Amino acid sequence: MCASQNPRNSIKNRLLAALPPEEYERLLPYMELVSLDFKQILYAPNEPIQYVYFPNSGVGSLLSLVESGDAVEVGTVGNEGMVGLPVFLGANSIPGEAIQQIPGEGMRMGADVFQREVTPGSPLYRLLQLYTQALFNLIAQSSACNRLHSIEQRFCRWMLMTRDRVGADQFPLTQEFLAQMLGVRRASVSEVAATIARAGFISYKYGKMTLLDTEGLESTSCECYAIVKREFERLLGGNSAFS
């Protein structure tokens, strides 16, 4: 993990960018720009959360775990949000886990500093209230989607959401994460990816996913992608990665 000497020039997080200049300047000394590496643990199950992260790039994955050790992705965080909402909500640990799924970089702040400096009524606090609702909507919609829609529909929804967060049509992705995001076996992931690739919507080689036809993906995706996108835009407006 590395820190930059000039973090302000690299700020791309939508929440931080939406702050009034004076509030951003006030908080800046408490933050550092760090790299977010593939599979880096951002917080671990039932352990104190040390930092909150405001991603500039890449995608973080919020995982729900069971006793067998299996994990299922319940939400993702890109540059529209913050990893570490339990700290904002007053908790210092949760049973779930957050890891970096697609490498990038972000601004990191100590959890204790965050709780001291981001107080009720402050600009960032108000933004995080809206972001919390938007993320709750995403998790709730994903839960319904996993129950009601086909693997192919869910696959296309996740690809489009990841594209929105990464801001590019190509990103690194492993079959392990594909299985976690869909809550299915890796063999099922391979079958679905092959089907979508034959349709000409994606290309997947050497651990890199390339979206070739986003309109085709949108036509195959369920309505959940549009619902989540609309809710982020409604709550966060121009601060959303989806706008």
UniProtKB/TrEMBL annotation:
One of its GO terms (cellular component) is cytosol. Keywords: DNA-binding, Transcription, Transcription regulation. One of its GO terms (molecular function) is DNA binding. Residues 153-219 form the HTH crp-type domain. This is Crp/Fnr family transcriptional regulator. InterPro entries: cNMP-bd_dom, cNMP-bd_dom_sf, Env_Response_Regulators, HTH_CRP, RmlC-like_jellyroll, WH-like_DNA-bd_sf, WH_DNA-bd_sf.
